[in-house]
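Re: weekly structure request thread

Next one in the queue (181 aa):
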Amino acid sequence: MKKMKSVKLGLALFVAISCTIGVQQSKAQTSEVETETDQFQDIPVHKKQTGNPDYDEIVYRRNLIEYFRGAYDLPEFVSTGDREADIENFNKSLKVWYQSHPDFISVLGMKSYKDFVKYDITCYPPPPDFRKSDSDETYRKAFQTWMSHHPEAPKLQGDDMASNEKFEREKAMFYEMYYKK
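Done, posted below.
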């Protein structure tokens, strides 16, 4: 009987110590996570929920890129005309930047030009220059060609009247932002 009590007491003591250690480890892990999230709470960019997750992601990533460019000198894509060399230079400058800011790899989640081109407007070719064109017609054709390759250019989504009206509104907004600017 005495042996049973000592075994039960030993088992109870073991369970109590194990629970205490587990709680302490859990608190330590929680404080590590809190420290990590506290570290990034200084970033004033937050994802907004509009109901369109693709749009929300694009806006969030663009705002992150803009913030890091202003606050931490995140490199921009510079187009010199040699696209392959420009991409290689951009990737190299990103590697150097991430070496000096390793904590931001997980925040941005973009490590190369291939990732940035989806969200970074500096990766898009600029619209044609109106002053360099021979005529309005030449510029209009060059602009339409440029617009057809631009990732944000409006696309016709259907063949009904509502889709056509939406496309025309988006096209007008696109022209307002870029045409002859």
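Helices lie at 2-40, 53-72, 83-100, 105-108, 113-116, 136-149, 161-178. The two ends are 93 Å apart (CA to CA).
Next request, please.
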